[in-house]
Amino acid sequence: MIVEPVNSHLVLLPVAIPFAAAAAGLLLLRHRPRAMSLLALSAMAAGVWASATLAFDVMSSGAPVVLHVGGWRAPFGINLVADHLGALMALMCQAVLFAGVLYALGSRDKCVRFPVFYPLLLTLAAGLTGAMLTGDLFNFFVFAELVVISGTVLTACSDHRRGVEAAYKYFYIALVAAMALLLANGCLYAEYGTLNMADLASRIADHPDAPLAGVALGLLLVSLGIKCAAVPFHFWQPDFHTTSPTAVSAMLSSVVVKLGVYGLIRVSMLLFPHADSLAPLLIGAGIAGVAVGGLGAVGTHDLKRMLAYSTLAQVGFMLVAIGWRSEAAIAAALVFAFNHAFVKAAMLMLAGVVASRASVKSSSFDVVTGIGRALPGAGVLFLLGGMSLAGLPPMNGFVSKFGVFRAGVDHSAWLVLAALAIGSLCTFVYVARSFQRVWWESPEAAEHVKPTGDSLAAPMLLIAFCVAMGVAPQPLLTFAADTAAWLADPTAYIAASLGGSP
User: Fold this and answer.
1) Which helix (H) or strand (E) holds 165?
2) Of 70, 179, 225, 371, which residue is least crowded by CB atoms under 10 Å?
3) What is the model's pLDDT at position 166?
4) Are 344 and 452 in a shared domain?
5) Residue 8 · residue 58 · CB < 8 Å
6) Domain assignment present for 398
7) Is 268 part of a structural domain of the chain?
């Protein structure tokens, strides 16, 4: 399918808007934090509009939006490709990051008033969205590094005393992921002479047994496994998300980990669709993630740390579905990834709201036990979000898990389904336990509750979306099904990316 879209420059806007706002804010508004925060919120709102328009164009036309940057046709030039997958993931990232900026506006953290906070948050948005929309593997590396640098500095400026330590951990593990990705790029370029993903997919299909192809695949799996915190590359994630500012941890645990999930879908469905070794590796890593994440969340002592471990388990569900690689399984993985981004961001924000009302700002259960008694509204939101994580109707998490289980039945993967069911039971246990401790039990000592704290506006918006997507999931299910059908035929992506005129 050769595509020559009329509004091809639209694909540039979700990347350019937050990046331009970050530069303008840093240059002009660095000493005016309130104006900077409003600029960031306006930029993210514009980014959501551009991403939604882009996704609507792709969904309505059934064809990707392609931009050949500088007029140089791919594969010799760089192109941006908003196909079904890229458009869906970009919309997810922009919408959740808008909520992240909204939460930061109502946050009591000192770090949100630093001159670099909002520019870095906007740079993170630009890097994350650019990675979802680029058609070039090297530029995927560049955009991913923007995400890493932004996330590292945002964590280092945290109010938490161990923020710098967590930032160092994240930076060095991200350095390993970057080296693996860069080496994979080198192997693929040496073997096939290109890094454009469409051209690369075509050449790999012609010569799948090239000597460096397997090495590149292994390096890609390591890099992307680190980025999505897949077991056994997960060890950095709980510390990192526990100590980073709430507005940042909510983004990192909800949408930034999806960078690895997105990359694994591209590797499985576009670059190496015939690699038989991928299925057992992804399914095994997914089951391990469900086990480690579920047990870690049940046994942890901190509310935010519990939710960080929960991300390991939720990513495990996605990896299992990607490993099955049928259209139904890929559609289920996409629905799961999209819905998880909203509910996990909301849950971490609610943990931040509770911690902000404690006498000593901390999400440790020893500190926040009973704090929720003064926050009934937050309790209702947390209960709804917990129902979504556990996969209970009528929340969007039920739609997500139902899709994965139905795909598993199609594959007759009964043992895998049993492991996922046990993981879902663990989710119910730790969500119920945390709700009981924070909103039901009485404080062990006379705990002073601050009269004000972080705003509930952002988590309320996200939970409302979760309820809406649980009650009326059909638009997302249709888009995900169309995306899975699109990904099932790599030649369509190749033709669209290389065949459209600049």
Assistant:
1) helix 163-192
2) 70
3) 81
4) yes
5) no
6) yes
7) yes
